[in-house]
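User: Here's a structure from my thesis project, written as structure tokens. My advisor, Dr. K., wants to see whether a designed sequence matches the one we expressed. Can you design one independently, without my sequence as a hint?
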């Protein structure tokens, strides 16, 4: 029988120390349900150290990515206070194993949200929307993993940067964006790549969190999923994403 508590300790230690770990499925494949169990146990270790959950992130929100991974649904992970990075500030590369960045849309929750809701119902619980970037960082050796592995590793969530908040009725369904590193465009896309409408990812966040007995509380943040492929980061990088109508989000990568 798989020792989920031990795997959670390994995953938590890898994230805490920024040291790569072997792929769990090298020795025994994890089901998606086991992956979520490991994720939850790992996050409980963080909470015990004083970190707190402040929201959730969605993953595999691209239909093409779901088909590539053989999925019929998204995955999700927890966001904690320690993952928040300052917009325009400098992140510590040493906190990560092999970090990558992707542009996203962020939602700020105004009213309690849980269970099966429509995108419209989900948006009625929103206080604001914002341009954002997520720093993803699989802690596995060589950034290699299968589905159970990535879910166990908090769905690769490790950091995020959020720009200015806008009114909740701001239309973010199809906004063009350009992500650049050191002045060179590395990704060009649209927020429509997030399920055709990021609000669908928000509704899925409420549904999937509820399946684990969790709700979205006022003040929580939801990252709706990557709008483009992720780009690798290196010390010294300056990262900037320009969003149509929403402005620019930036951060630097320290050594």
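Assistant: Designed independently from the structure alone:
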């Amino acid at each position: 029988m798989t020792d989920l508590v031990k795997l959670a300790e390994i995953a938590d230690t890898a994230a805490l120390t920024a040291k790569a770990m072997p792929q769990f499925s090298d020795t025994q494949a994890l089901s998606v349900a086991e992956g979520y169990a490991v994720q939850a146990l790992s996050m409980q270790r963080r909470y015990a150290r004083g970190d707190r959950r402040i929201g959730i992130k969605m993953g595999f929100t691209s239909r093409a990515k779901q088909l590539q991974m053989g999925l019929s649904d998204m995955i999700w992970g927890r966001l904690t206070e320690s993952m928040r990075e300052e917009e325009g500030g400098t992140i510590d590369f040493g906190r990560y194993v092999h970090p990558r960045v992707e542009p996203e849309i962020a939602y700020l929750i105004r009213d309690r949200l849980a269970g099966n809701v429509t995108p419209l119902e989900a948006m009625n619980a929103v206080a604001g929307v914002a341009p954002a970037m997520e720093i993803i960082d699989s802690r596995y050796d060589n950034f290699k993993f299968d589905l159970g592995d990535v879910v166990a590793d908090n769905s690769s969530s490790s950091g995020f940067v959020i720009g200015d908040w806008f009114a909740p009725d701001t239309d973010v369904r199809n906004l063009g964006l350009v992500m650049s590193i050191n002045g060179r465009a590395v990704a060009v896309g649209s927020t429509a790549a997030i399920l055709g409408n990021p609000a669908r990812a928000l509704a899925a966040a409420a549904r999937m969190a509820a399946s684990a007995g969790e709700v979205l509380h006022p003040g929580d943040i939801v990252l709706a999923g990557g709008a483009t492929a992720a780009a690798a980061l290196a010390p010294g990088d300056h990262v900037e994403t320009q969003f149509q109508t929403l402005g620019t989000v930036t951060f630097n990568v320290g050594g």
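When you compare it with your expressed construct, this may help: The domain at 4-254 is CATH 3.90.850.10 (Fumarylacetoacetate hydrolase; domain 2).
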